[in-house]
Amino acid sequence: MWITLAILLAAIVLFVTELLRVDVVALLVVVALILTGILTTDEAIAGFSNAVVLTIAALFVVGGAIFQTGLAAAIGQRILRVAGTDPTRLTIMIMVAVALLSGFISDTGVVAVMLPAIVAVSASAKLSPAKLMIPLAFGSLLGGASTLIGTPPNLIVTDLLREAGVEPFGFFSFTPMGVVLVAAGVLFMTLVGRHLLPDRQPEAEGQAFETPKELIDRYHLPDNLFRLRVRSTSPLIGQTIDATRLGSDFDVSVISVLREERQEAAIRIGEQRISAATSRDLTLHPDPELELQRDDVLLVRGEGNVVGRAAAQLRLAIQQATSADYDALVSEEVGVTEVVLPPRSQLIGRTLVDTRFGKTYRLTVLNITRPGTGSLENIKDTPLRFGDILLVQGEWRDIFALKQQRRDFVVMGETERFQQFNRRKAPIALIVLALMLVAMISGMVSVAAASMTAGLLMILTGCLTIDEAYRAVDWKSLVLIAGMLPMATALEKVGLVEVAAMGFTTTLGGFGPLVILAGLFLLTSAFTQVLSNTATAVLVAPIALATAQQLGITPHAYMMAVAVAASMAFASPVASPVNTLVMGAGDYSFGDYLKVGIPMIGVMLVVTMIVLPLLWPF
Q1: Whole-model pTM?
Q2: Residues of the chain with pLDDT under 50
Q3: Scanning 56, 172, 266, 524, which has the fewest C-beta atoms within 10 Å of its C-beta?
Q4: Is the separation of the CB atoms in 231 and 317 below 8 Å?
């Protein structure tokens, strides 16, 4: 029991301090439970085959298809057009809209899609973005608590009830409570919370996002563009771009590769053979594994004398870039943008060479600007720091992929209009989503089967590619869930769950089950400010179930309270990804979340204590 408690406390410390990534901590928990003999190997790795984990993975794919087809963006834009510019009406419409969307797809994805549009609306309404960003985040958190698939804690408590032989929650079991909470949250934010939010106006126009064309002008990119043609005697023929070491040895960045593709066709007429040759110019992305051929033309950026030295040593013909090359820096397929390294980025302290940036992210770093010191001369070998601004160039899809890695990058600049949606597939995605919901609600198949089938259909119908499906999955979250589920098994196996439940019944039992419900709510909401909602639900839900069993009451109210409270991540910018996502756009401080979040949690507690016993009597 003491060993298990020590492992749990060590994990919580690592979660809170973020000395290691949360998924690494979860894997350490799995290994520690095996090595200490608390769990068998099969018990410790059971989380990776758990139906909840597979369901969440499939739902990530379904959500990815909804975003990839532009369906979510279209819904968000239409809602904002209806909202107008009145602050109160905007607050209500934004919170209701994101709550509805978050009930069926990822709340983080919903906020990411809605955020740029809301920033634009706040500008046109001459309203501080700070008045709308926290309502956006809080609305998505409340909406996730409204359906079975809205947030992982709902699936976790449902699965726990099923394992205990108790009737599990259905798809819409969470909806009545969720609707009441959303209504209470909207009421609080419009009457009280809106006045607690800061009224910081955006700074001067210089702070506005720059377009790719403006970035090109500011960094003088055309001044240092050159063409390098691969001669027949060049040692680069047959080498990959990574092997050429143009970047590491010469500090020359390859922007693209221009290649002439020849095609020959021949027909025979009697004894005579007639052949014809055609050619077309291809612009290839500088993939590190791309092999160079004779007469390939490399569009590169670098100082003139350095590019000249590289051309001489590698027997390349050098030419000045053309106006067409300047235009090719930004198109519907490729572009440039600035990327800022946040304080928790795993790139901090490492060089671009160490991270193999080009190979890992399929993007070229053209410049690094360090606040207070200006542009760095040696961008390849200088260790990166918090706040460094990377000017990256490459395909828009790879730039947008960086937006999904919010721990490591903050993508700046006006990039939204280059977002490419597969809008032709939007009706198909909508039909598949509707069929999945019908299957789940009717109980024709299990939630896991319905979600996995829907995810597969999204891929087979072309709503997103298999590579896009893999990118849509938040693997860090999946490993966190799979790694922490065995901890719940260990806590129960060694008797800690029973001890905690006994403590609740002994301490609060004399005051009645309603006070215990309040205690569970407060414990869960406190944990979810420093842990993920998933880890919180995994730890507290077994205690709630055991407490209900010791009291001899039906456990549904307590389990629902844990699921609901796990979504009350209002009091910290790091309590939930959506809070972190809106922090920069709203120019919030840590105190802003405390000022609004703590009263919001208090309101949700009161509402839960009044409504939950009516919906799920003890």
Answers
A1: 0.65
A2: 203-208
A3: 266
A4: yes
